[in-house]
Amino acid sequence: MLTQERQSIIENYVNQHEVCRVSELCDLTETSESTIRRDLIQMEKNGILKRVHGGAQSVKNFSRDVSQNVRFNLNHDVKIALAQYAASNFVQPGDNVFIDAGTTTYELVPFLADIPNVKIITNGVETALCSLNHGIKTILIGGEVKDDTHAVIGQTALSQIKAMNFSVSFVGANGIEQNGNLTTPDPEEAAIKAAEIKQARRAYVLADSSKIGERNFAVFAHTRDVCVVTDQLTSSQKAALPADINLKEAK
Amino acid sequence: MLTQERQSIIENYVNQHEVCRVSELCDLTETSESTIRRDLIQMEKNGILKRVHGGAQSVKNFSRDVSQNVRFNLNHDVKIALAQYAASNFVQPGDNVFIDAGTTTYELVPFLADIPNVKIITNGVETALCSLNHGIKTILIGGEVKDDTHAVIGQTALSQIKAMNFSVSFVGANGIEQNGNLTTPDPEEAAIKAAEIKQARRAYVLADSSKIGERNFAVFAHTRDVCVVTDQLTSSQKAALPADINLKEAK
DNA sequence: CACATTTCTTCAAAAAGTTTCATTTTTAGT
DNA sequence: ACTAAAAATGAAACTTTTTGAAGAAATGTG
User: Fold this and answer.
1) Can you give the pTM of this predicted structure?
2) Low-confidence residues of chain B, pLDDT below 70?
3) Does residue B63 form part of some domain?
4) Is residue A174 part of a domain?
């Protein structure tokens, strides 16, 4: 059996079962624990699943509720640190803040609750709910909802965003290339992200260091158009970024 | 059983029961008290629940969290019965179903998951989320979100609704007057409800019997324009309704 | 205060994870 | 097609984490 084939089987199984143990995967793929563990380590690094003691856990939000999803996410602590830094440095009282759908940007919400008179505009269903629960005035973008990321996308969403102006936008990214391209897998989401940035006076891309050097199908912006917020970077990570990048390292 | 699995079970159980004892959780997960205690300590540290002498307590803010609130709602069982009746009698495979924001109509979602190829369009944030979690294709209406009911309202929402046609709409009501007026307290929500009904080929108002004879500020439709779905009524309740009403009593 | 629970502490057994290494399988170059 | 280098695999020894039990300490109740 090919490595890719096996990992694909593992991915499906984990996503279908939410959690599973190593032994199950051994039976499933007829390989040793060693191999499965090596696969899991590699797959965790790629963000396909999360390793837990005894097995692996899905990072996709199918049957779980929101709060669980957010907690079980990869690099959760880093995301919170980014969010806190971004919220306290780049948001003013009275701002109209656009928050992109996604787990990193989601973490911004609690920190915005302390800033007077902010309004949140978002295309993330969970983000909207969280914002409401924090008593923040909330505007939701309408349209089709993607079943995996729960992001609102499509033409309706796009034209609604284009009819508004934001003080500041916070956008998530799946990859930052050496040449400065910011990327995400889904072209539909990319179109939305591009509009979010265009309609904002100031635009910030929140991306933890694992996204550096990653490359996805759809380009939605270039580093010269935005400010990139990340965690502390090693020198080799910095070398993998464009020289003229407008970068802020949290803390 | 894996730690994550167990803690997930504990979280659900505690949230559903508000408080519970350690021994209950032992039975539930078939583990020792030691393990449960260790889980509770860890979960308390993560803010998932609160430990109290003898067990654990939910920390969810019920007044704000609608989706949790739903099950503690007044007449919860009646609402489920209405929803099941409505879903199984008035929805066809392939329908585009509009579901109004609100706790009664929210209950429709699980029953629609079994009907092939339905699409849900809604202005309820929790309803959308629930729909997604059931794997149903979902379209969300955009606009301002009301902080108490979490219903999407306003001009943007209105024009988005008017740009669509639904096979069937399910709308909630706060009051049904003797003269056939269907009412709700907020005029903004009333405007939305009126549009939801207008754009649908078939429109159903879901209202349990406690709404009969109630009168609210804003009228959004008349009984002659819709089919009203309620639970079993007494003869005096029937007498408080217009004579020409198109009424369906669940079960 | 006395009593019954509940919680905390400690410890050893069991389960899971890591590291290392010899062996097999792939890959790439000639 | 052949061979050497690289990568992947499975097994073993060893480390860490998790678990349940038993006794000590703390807590709530009448």
Assistant:
1) 0.77
2) 60-74
3) no
4) yes
